[in-house]
Amino acid sequence: MAYLRKGRTREPPPQPQPSSNLSKSVSLLGGLALTAGGIIGSGIFFTPYSIFNFSGGSVVIALSVWIGAGLLALAGGLCYCELGCSMPESGGDYVYLHRAYGPLPAFLFVWSAIFLGRPCAQAVVTLPFAKCLVSQIFEEPTDGAVNFAAIVTTVVLGLVNSVDVKAAVRVQSFLLVFKVASLLLVVFAAFFYWFRSGESGCLFDGSSSSSHLSAGQIGMALYAALWAYDGWANLNYALGEVPNPEKILPRAIGLGLLVVIGCYVAVNISLFVFLTKEEYLSSDATILLIGTKFLGSSTASIVVPTFMGIFCLGTANGMCLLGARLIYAASRKGQFPAFLGLIHADFATPVPAVCFHTLLCCFYILLGSFESLLEYTSVLAWIVFGLGFLSVYVLRVREPQLRRPYKVFGALPGLMILASVYLVFVPLVMNPKTFLVVLVFVPGCFVYYCVIQGRLGLLKSVNDYFLNLTKRLGKLN
């Protein structure tokens, strides 16, 4: 490991660019699947209740929040188009933070994302699919059986992403088609029931009048909606595998988010047409209420969770692919062990990085109680996004000669910086404990100054051993 040597250095030595070593397997359809397919997940099943509740039961405000959050995600995606087209490397935020602010902020981000944010999030979305799978075998599945199924699912996804990126992207594309078709089926079912029964929901009962809300309530509603839109920057993490990022990235992000916004707004309108205000607020699984009325409680209790599990499987597949690319990018820049940045000669995939990410996901599944950590990592994510938006201006000033095939409208990054600040402080005001997220940086700083800058030079031999061992185990370079 080049950076694990005695003596001090301000920055790790330059590493070879990874992009040329990875398989260029992500087409426009694949990019669309990684973007839209990564966004549409379990959030659409549970978030409508939270947003309607935070909106004070106002249909107009709730729909405005869904549309506004979608437009914010689209604006953020356009900002990241400029960054991605200028720096078409795998790694996403890590690449942009490293170039704009230097190695320390980039390492602190990658430290928190690799060991906490990415594997924890994938574990959360894998468990519903595993529970759905086990429920088909046992009437009352135990936690152990669910965890075992989740680990098997995680390992299978890791194998697919290790052996063939094209196969992983094809799975993502198929699941995207399934998700969109399923949401359109929900919309059709709601309107069909409404026309057939003549019963009207809260869209027509006066609930559309605005009520007095605090800035904190609107902020929390927006925060919940943006969680459902999370994943708009997914493709930036796999740009090293996109053959023509200058064209594919803006198209994939633009088309993907328009598809998601259209689906989300259509589903919510159908919910407001179908359900009364009391029914809407009676359960946090609002889509289950549609299934219950249309299919009956016994059938809906099987069909809806099954669909939700499949939605989660698509999200988990995308998280596996992108989480491994973050590890790979950090290793190639000398901030993680070098053997994690190796690529399989035949598969052209970062197999060690995929395996490491898979092991971390399995650890969180076995850990069990980790869902509360996501509230803290969401705050951290918007801190990183804010720095990413700011890096657009930083790099325009510092590197005006940098080639920018796509350039976003000048005021848009500024708007997104303000939105990021707002979305960081709202949770802190509503729940001051979320400020504890900064504690994740404490061990990160220790590792950076003691290991990355070479004060623990004895670890170099350990890294060299694993590097040579990994190369001997397979066709890795």
Quick summary of this structure?
The protein is built from 17 helices and no strands. Helix content is 70%, strand content 0%.
Q: Which percent range describes the beta-strand content?
A: under 5%
- The domain count comes to 1
**Total DSSP helices:** 17
Poorly predicted segments: 1-20
CATH architecture: Up-down Bundle
Rounded to an integer, what's the Rg over CA atoms?
A: 23 Å
Assign the structural class, choosing from mainly alpha, mainly beta, alpha/beta, alpha+beta, or little secondary structure. Answer: mainly alpha
Counted beta strands: 0
Shape: globular
CATH class: Mainly Alpha
What is the mean predicted local confidence, pLDDT? 83
CATH fold node name: Amino acid/polyamine transporter I
